[in-house]
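User: Sequence recovery, please. Input:
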């Protein structure tokens, strides 16, 4: 037995131990443990190592030819043995994250009621409003909860309203926190907020397991969400509350409403923006220019585009000591009505994007369509952007004319077609490279192969993947016991990610680290976040900044079996 393996005092015995995913070792229980815990006759003779178990589990996984079947297999494994589950995925990160998360998890969520076998989290349902506190306590009493991931499932992974199936995205997100940051899975809580669904297919499905009712909105919805948040604040005061896949009408306002009351985070709003900010910072490290000197054009002003705009804006303001209003002047957002400018009127300008509205006098003499709307080409000609970001799912929107026009106005255009999946990207990386004569700095929302350069070299296309940063942001807030996940803490984590850019050593390398390095990357992000929390006084721990690295590593959960000793008063 390795001297570094932990020793656990466990109160469970027999079948109770074998059916508990936190403590079950399966065939890895030692002969001594089998005798002590009453397992000798319950297991086959041979004792396996964890590596042997991983090899067997991977072979079993490979026998499933369809990704949805692999997803189901891995879900079953998570319900049986946490150490084996996380060790297997950690050994094959690049291959298996898409199986347990996007894109395969979307299919599993869409089929949730037909695939349902057992519960996998906490189901908070609107008709049970009066018993919410009792139901919540049943899940959290006696537990030290560090992370609560919740979803109302209105906007799941590009497939929209999925009702009670939202529990799938909450559990998947929790698993990513464990895999990439080291969150202890026993201290996480996955929650679906079942407020009904407007998905007619679900409402008409006799096997639908959620509340078969139209989605609750307005005051009733707000009261339900508020009661849940207050329960989180009351019973898990030091946890991080992660909002996931809420609809655009609720995502921003709920985050804004609660982020000063509790440590809250919304990956769709802040995570996408943070990884994009890191990507831009990395590119600026190559071009040797300042964030405040950039001109940003963002094509697509939905949840992702607006989240990116806000995070970039906050980065400009924080790193250059500018007001929010002054930082906003660097941004030009386009939605389905073209450039967001004053003359569009209140009906076409959503409240969420109003602060980025451009004054009409800027656009006098600029060609418009018959509706008076300014298109992307005209914006690029007028603004001469240094950064062009696509979040539109409008495939091919960045045409050759637009890219060549952009290249006229800046030596190293930063081009980020971030729409997913790859078939919906605004421009193919190879085209963007060719049309700028190899000058463009490029990152995408999905993996792409290296770009072939005229000189024979290859340019590595970075992947703007939220998983490179959000687990670290959350883990940093959690270990520092921060009262809030502040903008400055997010920017600190973003700057640390940017500092890890391979492009800073080789301009032909990727703007962001490889996804395979994401566990180490997220640890660095977490350290930066916790250091900033301590510096600004929002941390709830009495640490010195130089202690953070050691403390962070010490709080990471590792998928190790350890050595068990029986103690009737031990852990369960």
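Assistant: Recovered sequence (572 residues):
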């Amino acid at each position: 037995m390795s001297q570094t393996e932990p020793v656990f005092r466990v109160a469970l015995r027999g079948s109770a131990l074998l059916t508990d995913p936190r403590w079950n070792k399966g065939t890895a229980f030692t002969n001594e443990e089998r005798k002590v815990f009453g397992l000798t006759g319950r297991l086959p003779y041979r004792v396996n190592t964890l590596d042997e178990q991983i090899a067997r589990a991977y072979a079993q996984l490979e026998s499933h030819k369809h990704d949805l079947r692999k997803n189901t297999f891995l879900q079953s494994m998570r319900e049986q043995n946490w150490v084996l589950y996380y060790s297997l995925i950690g050994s094959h990160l690049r291959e298996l994250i898409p199986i347990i998360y996007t894109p395969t998890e979307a299919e599993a969520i869409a089929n949730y009621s037909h695939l349902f076998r057992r519960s996998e989290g906490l189901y908070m349902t609107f008709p049970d409003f009066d018993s919410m506190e009792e139901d919540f306590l049943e899940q959290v009493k006696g537990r030290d909860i560090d992370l609560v991931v919740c979803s109302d499932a209105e906007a799941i992974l590009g497939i929209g309203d999925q009702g009670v199936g939202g529990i799938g995205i909450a559990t998947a997100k929790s698993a990513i926190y464990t895999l990439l940051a080291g969150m202890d899975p026993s201290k996480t809580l996955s929650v679906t907020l079942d407020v009904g669904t407007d998905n007619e297919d679900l409402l008409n499905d006799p096997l639908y397991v959620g509340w078969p009712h139209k989605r609750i909105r307005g005051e009733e919805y707000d009261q339900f969400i508020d009661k849940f948040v207050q329960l989180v604040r009351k019973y898990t005061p030091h946890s991080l509350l992660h909002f996931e896949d809420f609809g655009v009408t609720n995502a921003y306002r709920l985050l804004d409403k609660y982020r000063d009351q509790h440590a809250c985070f919304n990956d769709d709003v802040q995570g996408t923006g943070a990884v994009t900010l890191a990507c831009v910072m990395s590119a600026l490290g190559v071009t040797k220019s300042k964030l405040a000197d950039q001109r940003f054009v963002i094509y697509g002003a939905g949840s992702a585009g607006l989240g990116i705009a806000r995070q970039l804006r906050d980065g400009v303001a924080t790193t250059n000591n500018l007001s929010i209003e002054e930082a906003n002047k660097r941004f030009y957002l386009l939605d389905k009505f073209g450039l967001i400018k004053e003359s569009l009127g209140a009906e076409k300008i959503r409240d969420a994007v109003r602060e980025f509205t451009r004054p009409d006098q800027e656009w006098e003499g600029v060609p418009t369509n018959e509706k008076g709307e300014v298109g992307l080409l005209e914006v690029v000609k007028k603004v001469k952007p240094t950064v062009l970001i696509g979040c539109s799912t409008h495939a091919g929107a960045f045409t050759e004319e637009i890219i060549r026009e952009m290249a006229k106005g800046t030596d190293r255009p930063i081009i980020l077609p971030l729409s997913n999946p790859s078939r919906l990207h605004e421009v193919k990386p190879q085209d963007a490279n060719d049309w700028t004569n190899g000058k463009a700095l490029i990152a995408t929302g999905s993996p792409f192969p290296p770009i072939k350069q005229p000189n024979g070299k290859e340019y590595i296309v970075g992947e703007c993947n939220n998983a490179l940063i959000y687990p670290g942001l959350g883990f940093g807030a959690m270990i520092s016991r921060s009262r809030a996940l502040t903008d400055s803490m997010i920017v600190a984590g973003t700057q640390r990610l940017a500092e890890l850019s391979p492009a800073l050593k080789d301009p032909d390398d990727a703007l962001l680290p490889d996804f395979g390095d994401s566990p180490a990357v997220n640890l660095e992000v977490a350290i930066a976040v916790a250091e900033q929390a301590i510096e600004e006084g929002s941390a709830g721990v009495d640490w010195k900044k130089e202690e953070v690295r050691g403390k962070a590593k010490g709080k990471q959960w590792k998928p190790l079996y350890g050595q068990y000793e029986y103690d009737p008063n031990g852990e369960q």
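Residues 482 and 538 are 5 Å apart (CA to CA).
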